[in-house]
Amino acid sequence: MAPSSSQRPAMAWLDLLQTRYTALGVREQRGLLLAALALATLLLWSVALAPALRTLQSADAQNAQLASTLERMQALQTRALALQATPLVAPQESLKALKAAADALGKAATLQVIGEQATLSLKQVSAQSLAPWLAPLASSGPSPFETHLQRDASSAEPLWSGTLVFRLPAQKPAAR
To answer: How do strand 109-114 and strand 159-167 relate by DSSP bridges?
Structure first.
Protein backbone atom coordinates (compact mmCIF):
# COMPACT_ATOMS: atom_id res chain seq x y z
CA MET A 1 0.00 0.00 0.00
CA ALA A 2 1.47 3.31 -1.06
CA PRO A 3 1.43 6.25 1.34
CA SER A 4 -1.01 9.04 0.52
CA SER A 5 0.14 12.37 -0.84
CA SER A 6 -0.38 14.11 2.56
CA GLN A 7 1.90 11.57 4.27
CA ARG A 8 4.73 11.91 1.73
CA PRO A 9 6.04 15.33 2.93
CA ALA A 10 5.94 14.14 6.53
CA MET A 11 7.79 10.95 5.67
CA ALA A 12 10.35 12.89 3.65
CA TRP A 13 10.89 15.20 6.60
CA LEU A 14 11.32 12.23 8.98
CA ASP A 15 13.75 10.60 6.54
CA LEU A 16 15.77 13.82 6.45
CA LEU A 17 15.90 14.01 10.26
CA GLN A 18 16.92 10.38 10.55
CA THR A 19 19.66 10.85 7.98
CA ARG A 20 21.04 13.89 9.80
CA TYR A 21 20.80 12.10 13.17
CA THR A 22 22.77 9.10 11.93
CA ALA A 23 25.36 11.44 10.42
CA LEU A 24 26.06 12.88 13.90
CA GLY A 25 28.70 11.42 16.14
CA VAL A 26 27.78 9.30 19.19
CA ARG A 27 28.50 12.18 21.54
CA GLU A 28 26.21 14.57 19.59
CA GLN A 29 23.48 11.90 19.39
CA ARG A 30 23.56 11.49 23.20
CA GLY A 31 23.45 15.28 23.65
CA LEU A 32 20.50 15.55 21.30
CA LEU A 33 18.68 12.74 23.15
CA LEU A 34 19.36 14.43 26.51
CA ALA A 35 18.05 17.75 25.14
CA ALA A 36 14.92 16.02 23.82
CA LEU A 37 14.47 14.24 27.18
CA ALA A 38 14.89 17.55 29.04
CA LEU A 39 12.37 19.22 26.74
CA ALA A 40 9.88 16.35 27.23
CA THR A 41 10.37 16.53 31.02
CA LEU A 42 9.79 20.30 31.00
CA LEU A 43 6.67 19.85 28.91
CA LEU A 44 5.35 17.12 31.24
CA TRP A 45 6.06 19.31 34.29
CA SER A 46 4.44 22.45 32.92
CA VAL A 47 1.36 20.75 31.45
CA ALA A 48 0.58 17.96 33.90
CA LEU A 49 2.43 18.13 37.20
CA ALA A 50 2.77 21.85 38.09
CA PRO A 51 -0.96 22.72 37.80
CA ALA A 52 -1.91 19.65 39.84
CA LEU A 53 0.66 20.54 42.51
CA ARG A 54 -0.62 24.16 42.70
CA THR A 55 -4.17 22.87 43.11
CA LEU A 56 -3.05 20.51 45.85
CA GLN A 57 -1.17 23.29 47.68
CA SER A 58 -4.13 25.69 47.58
CA ALA A 59 -6.66 23.06 48.62
CA ASP A 60 -6.13 23.59 52.37
CA ALA A 61 -6.65 27.35 52.13
CA GLN A 62 -9.76 26.91 49.98
CA ASN A 63 -11.07 24.26 52.36
CA ALA A 64 -10.62 26.60 55.34
CA GLN A 65 -12.36 29.42 53.46
CA LEU A 66 -15.26 27.17 52.50
CA ALA A 67 -15.56 25.91 56.09
CA SER A 68 -15.71 29.51 57.32
CA THR A 69 -18.37 30.35 54.74
CA LEU A 70 -20.37 27.27 55.69
CA GLU A 71 -20.17 28.23 59.35
CA ARG A 72 -21.47 31.75 58.60
CA MET A 73 -24.28 30.34 56.45
CA GLN A 74 -25.30 27.92 59.20
CA ALA A 75 -25.32 30.75 61.74
CA LEU A 76 -27.53 32.80 59.41
CA GLN A 77 -29.81 29.81 58.92
CA THR A 78 -30.11 29.33 62.68
CA ARG A 79 -30.92 33.01 63.10
CA ALA A 80 -33.50 32.91 60.30
CA LEU A 81 -35.17 29.84 61.80
CA ALA A 82 -35.28 31.53 65.21
CA LEU A 83 -36.88 34.61 63.66
CA GLN A 84 -39.42 32.46 61.83
CA ALA A 85 -40.28 30.69 65.06
CA THR A 86 -40.92 33.99 66.87
CA PRO A 87 -44.66 34.43 67.31
CA LEU A 88 -46.20 37.35 65.47
CA VAL A 89 -47.17 40.31 67.59
CA ALA A 90 -50.77 41.48 67.33
CA PRO A 91 -51.15 44.90 65.67
CA GLN A 92 -52.61 46.53 68.78
CA GLU A 93 -49.81 45.17 70.98
CA SER A 94 -47.23 46.39 68.53
CA LEU A 95 -48.72 49.89 68.44
CA LYS A 96 -49.06 49.90 72.23
CA ALA A 97 -45.37 48.96 72.64
CA LEU A 98 -44.36 51.69 70.21
CA LYS A 99 -46.45 54.34 72.00
CA ALA A 100 -45.08 53.31 75.39
CA ALA A 101 -41.53 53.53 74.12
CA ALA A 102 -42.21 56.95 72.55
CA ASP A 103 -43.77 58.22 75.78
CA ALA A 104 -40.61 57.16 77.63
CA LEU A 105 -38.63 59.67 75.53
CA GLY A 106 -40.92 62.51 76.59
CA LYS A 107 -41.21 65.71 74.56
CA ALA A 108 -38.13 64.88 72.48
CA ALA A 109 -40.21 62.38 70.47
CA THR A 110 -43.48 62.64 68.57
CA LEU A 111 -45.27 59.64 67.11
CA GLN A 112 -47.54 59.85 64.08
CA VAL A 113 -49.51 56.79 62.96
CA ILE A 114 -50.98 56.62 59.46
CA GLY A 115 -52.50 53.29 58.49
CA GLU A 116 -49.92 50.55 58.88
CA GLN A 117 -47.02 52.96 59.17
CA ALA A 118 -45.78 54.86 62.22
CA THR A 119 -43.25 57.67 62.04
CA LEU A 120 -41.33 58.72 65.12
CA SER A 121 -39.66 62.12 64.99
CA LEU A 122 -36.77 62.69 67.38
CA LYS A 123 -35.31 66.05 68.42
CA GLN A 124 -31.99 66.10 70.24
CA VAL A 125 -32.23 62.76 72.05
CA SER A 126 -29.15 61.47 73.84
CA ALA A 127 -27.68 58.09 72.97
CA GLN A 128 -28.20 57.01 76.59
CA SER A 129 -31.92 57.67 76.20
CA LEU A 130 -32.21 56.19 72.71
CA ALA A 131 -30.49 52.83 73.35
CA PRO A 132 -32.80 51.64 76.15
CA TRP A 133 -35.75 52.93 74.13
CA LEU A 134 -34.91 50.63 71.20
CA ALA A 135 -34.29 47.55 73.40
CA PRO A 136 -37.94 46.75 74.31
CA LEU A 137 -39.01 47.27 70.71
CA ALA A 138 -36.69 44.48 69.59
CA SER A 139 -38.69 41.91 71.55
CA SER A 140 -42.24 43.20 71.65
CA GLY A 141 -42.62 45.84 68.99
CA PRO A 142 -41.94 46.59 65.37
CA SER A 143 -38.45 47.23 64.06
CA PRO A 144 -37.76 50.38 62.06
CA PHE A 145 -37.55 49.73 58.32
CA GLU A 146 -36.35 53.23 57.52
CA THR A 147 -34.09 55.36 59.68
CA HIS A 148 -32.83 58.90 59.16
CA LEU A 149 -30.78 60.02 62.14
CA GLN A 150 -28.26 62.83 62.36
CA ARG A 151 -25.81 63.39 65.15
CA ASP A 152 -25.66 66.89 66.59
CA ALA A 153 -22.03 67.18 67.67
CA SER A 154 -22.28 70.84 68.71
CA SER A 155 -23.33 69.94 72.25
CA ALA A 156 -21.08 68.39 74.92
CA GLU A 157 -23.08 65.15 74.83
CA PRO A 158 -23.84 63.76 71.34
CA LEU A 159 -27.53 64.20 70.57
CA TRP A 160 -29.57 62.56 67.81
CA SER A 161 -32.32 64.06 65.70
CA GLY A 162 -34.28 62.56 62.83
CA THR A 163 -37.02 60.05 62.04
CA LEU A 164 -37.65 56.34 62.45
CA VAL A 165 -40.34 54.79 60.27
CA PHE A 166 -42.02 51.58 61.45
CA ARG A 167 -44.27 49.22 59.53
CA LEU A 168 -46.99 47.95 61.83
CA PRO A 169 -48.46 44.45 61.42
CA ALA A 170 -51.50 44.43 59.17
CA GLN A 171 -54.92 44.32 60.77
CA LYS A 172 -56.80 41.13 60.01
CA PRO A 173 -60.13 41.80 58.31
CA ALA A 174 -63.13 41.14 60.51
CA ALA A 175 -64.84 37.78 59.92
CA ARG A 176 -68.35 38.01 58.50
So the answer is: unpaired
Distance CA 52, CA 45 (A): 10
- What does the DSSP assignment read for 26-61? HHHHHHHHHHHHHHHHHHHIIIIIHHHHHHHHHHHH
Q: From the CA atom positions of the chain, what is the Rg in Å?
A: 39
Sheet containing 144-152: give its strands across. Answer: 109-114, 117-126, 159-167, 144-152
Reported as a single tens digit per residue, the pLDDT across 36-92 is 999 999 999 999 999 999 999 999 999 999 999 999 999 999 988 987 787 776 777
Select from 120, 173, 161 the least CA-distant residue to 144. 120
- Count of H helices and E strands in the chain? 5, 4
- Rounded CA-CA distance 122/137 in Å is 16
Record the pTM. 0.46
Q: Is residue 167 classed as helix, strand or coil in its secondary structure?
A: strand
Q: Which residue, among 164, 77, 61, 59, has the nearest Cα to 113 in the 3D structure?
A: 164
* Residue boundaries of the structural domains of the chain: 7-83, 91-167
May I ask the CATH class of domain 91-167? alpha beta
Nearest to 147 by CA among 159, 135, 136, 161: 161
